[in-house]
Amino acid sequence: TAPEHKAQKLAGPPAAEALLRETAERAAKLAQKPHLSIVRLGEDPASVSYVAGKDARAKETGLSSTVHALPEETTQAELLALIRQLNGDSSVNGILVQLPLPEHIDEQEILLAIDPDKDVDGFHPMNVGRLWTNHPASVPCTPQGVMYLLKHYGIDPAGKRVVIIGRSNIVGRPMAGLLMNAHATVTVAHSRTRDLRAVTREADILIAAIGKAHFVTPDMVKPGAVVIDVGINRLEREGKKPKLLGDVHPDVAQVASAMTPVPGGVGPMTIAQLLGNTVAAAEEQAK
Ligand code: GUN
């Protein structure tokens, strides 16, 4: 039998390290250490783990950071008051409110309250508009991190057909804007797309941001395509760390020309990009 084909592994850590190095150098040039304020509500295990990672990486990269870990019961008014305090504090360069927020919080009102110049997540409608008019300022970290990873591995989306599965505000939509700005032909597919397989098989670059473990199977992928797996599905296990599964089935590596692994693919890019956004905000504010 013929040897199995295996896609090139697009490992996140080398790309993330390169971005963190650039970020640390820029941070060191500023008169004051850039400061990131992180806000989270409640004890969702994924959010606790992500926030701890962001805080630790910030400090390792020569930034300072504060975590405001508030109880689940925090009211809309209390959260707004904290955001206004951080907006007015000139020692704070970046503000990040970890999502998802509890049910009783109006997320849109919270995101609107963050000073757009300190909005390192790029979720404020002002920053969304800047991205979609091709004048990007702060751009959501995960899709911006995917762009850095593609560039790191010499993959230029210009002129290519890109299919994104998923239309979230955090990944799918901003990913589409960034790729359009980079001259790709972009299709955004989602749970209501008819004959999804026919759509995804058109992709030169397929980006999976669905949130369902191993959703993308080899029959959905054009041979030779580049596959970017943004999924982090946590399989909780008794007495052990949760197992992380991507949105892409590992067998897709036998069809794709290149593919990001999970873990160790897009994940590390998100935090690196967050720190990049924080340093960029601090640079702007120092002008
Ligand atoms: N929840 C999942 N991803 C993100 C992110 O990039 N930023 C924030 N604030 N919350 C998230």
Largest sheet: 6 strands, parallel
Structural class: alpha/beta
| Radius of gyration computed on alpha carbons | 19 Å
Number of strands: 11
Secondary-structure element pattern, one letter each? EHEHEHEHHHEHEHEEEEEH
Bound molecules: guanine
| pLDDT < 50 stretches | none
How far is the N terminus from the C terminus?
A: 63 Å
What would CATH call the architecture of the largest domain?
A: 3-Layer(aba) Sandwich
Looking across the biggest beta sheet, what order are the strands in?
A: 1-11-8-7-5-6
> Hey, roughly how much beta strand do the residues contain?
15-25%
Report the helical percentage.
25-40%
CATH class of the largest domain: Alpha Beta
User: What does the average pLDDT come to?
Assistant: 97
Keywords: Amino-acid biosynthesis, Histidine biosynthesis, Hydrolase, Methionine biosynthesis, Multifunctional enzyme, NADP, One-carbon metabolism, Oxidoreductase, Purine biosynthesis
Pathway: One-carbon metabolism; tetrahydrofolate interconversion
Protein name: Bifunctional protein FolD
Subunit structure: Homodimer.
List keywords for this structure.
single chain; 287 residues; alpha/beta; Rossmann fold; 2 domains; six-stranded parallel beta sheet; three-stranded parallel beta sheet; 38% helix; globular; binds guanine
Could you please describe the fold and organization of this structure?
Pfam families: THF_DHG_CYH, THF_DHG_CYH_C. Its EC number is 1.5.1.5, 3.5.4.9. It catalyses: (6R)-5,10-methylene-5,6,7,8-tetrahydrofolate + NADP(+) = (6R)-5,10-methenyltetrahydrofolate + NADPH; (6R)-5,10-methenyltetrahydrofolate + H2O = (6R)-10-formyltetrahydrofolate + H(+). InterPro entries: Aminoacid_DH-like_N_sf (IPR046346), NAD(P)-bd_dom_sf (IPR036291), THF_DH/CycHdrlase (IPR000672), THF_DH/CycHdrlase_cat_dom (IPR020630), THF_DH/CycHdrlase_CS (IPR020867), THF_DH/CycHdrlase_NAD-bd_dom (IPR020631). The protein has 9 helices and 11 strands. The protein has 287 residues and is an alpha/beta fold. The chain has 2 domains: 32-116, Leucine Dehydrogenase, chain A, domain 1 (Rossmann fold); 140-267, NAD(P)-binding Rossmann-like Domain (Rossmann fold, 3-Layer(aba) Sandwich), CATH 3.40.50. The strands form 3 sheets. The protein has a 6-stranded parallel beta sheet with strand order 1-11-8-7-5-6. Helix 2 (45-60) links the parallel strand 2 (35-41) and strand 3. Helix 2 (45-60) packs across helix 9 (267-286) and helix 6 (141-152) packs across helix 7 (172-181). The longest helix has 20 residues, at 267-286. The mean pLDDT is 97. The structure holds guanine. Guanine (GUN) binds at residues 96-99, 121, 141-142, 170, 270.
